[in-house]
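Render Queuine tRNA-ribosyltransferase in 3D.
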Amino acid sequence: MYRLIKNCGPARRGEFETPHGTIQMPAFMNVATAGAIKGAVSALDLKNLKCQVQLCNTYHLHLRPGDETVRTLGGLHEFTRWDGPILTDSGGFQVFSLAKLRNITEDGVTFASHIDGRKIFMGPEESMKIQSNLASTIAMAFDECVQNPAPYEYARESCERTIRWLKRSKAALDRLNREPGAINPRQMLFGINQGSTYEDLRIDCMKRIRELDLDGYAIGGLAVGERSEEMYRIIDAVIPEMPQDKPRYLMGVGTPENILEAVKRGVDLFDCVMPTRNARHGHVFTWQGRRNLFNAKYELDESPLDSDCDCPVCRNFSRAYLHHLFKSGEMLAMRLCVMHNIYFYNSLFEKIRASLDNGTFERYYQDNLKVLNRRI
């Protein structure tokens, strides 16, 4: 259940109660695609990095180790040892972005595994069954994500199919939750708004899917080729049509600038692989801007990554040491920088929530919009 605490213009401060704990919103979901944060960071580490929600991926876990295996081992919470909320992406985006060969029909999608090429079929019922086996807190409806820009007619047909698939996803999950053997019989379902960059398709889609009274709603199909201005235009069009009493999730979007812009427009929930992916390549976020630790100027720099950060990395290690680890190809470099970026992102959301609580979000937005994205 979502509770709106306060508005600052369209920006929202809220809480979302789930079977695995209450999420303070706006919030960031740390991406553990295959049940682990890439960069040797475990669920136990996440507790010290202010993580609220872990996101795992249906497609990847279905391929390895197999959702039936995860079910046998007690579901994702038992498997990963993360005891907070977990959201599972439906697999739709990966089907359309990773599978080189795929065939879309009304029933679902037949595609070749990106691992070994074997043929796999996934539709709404299959996606819900996999997510039920994974026993996540929140399941995402199976949808079709189109690349931007997409021809209008194809975007319209795809949007209609996504709505039909959402209704099937809901019916399937309702049935699975009633089964005696369900690991998480209170599994929640979020629907996904699609429609490419066409405002009329987006608005129509949102009006129709909100009638299903789901646990939350996501804006999908953005940050897949369009400019930021196009993304903000679509968010502005969709947000007024989204229910006030349900969480609003912007999928796969995550630079600090994008986050501040989307929170300002009324978005509650985010995920993105960028903070951890960038960290594994030596790019870290700080309150002064972004640093590239491969730069030679850090060779003798004894300062912490960020003097304004109290994460375990900044409290203990210097820029010079991390520069050395990257230049030496040490795995510890990735682990430490991933930990720092996760902590930074979750701290960013703490600061956003605090500014909403005390009515200073607009000032926080103006003060930090350009600083956090600049390259040092």
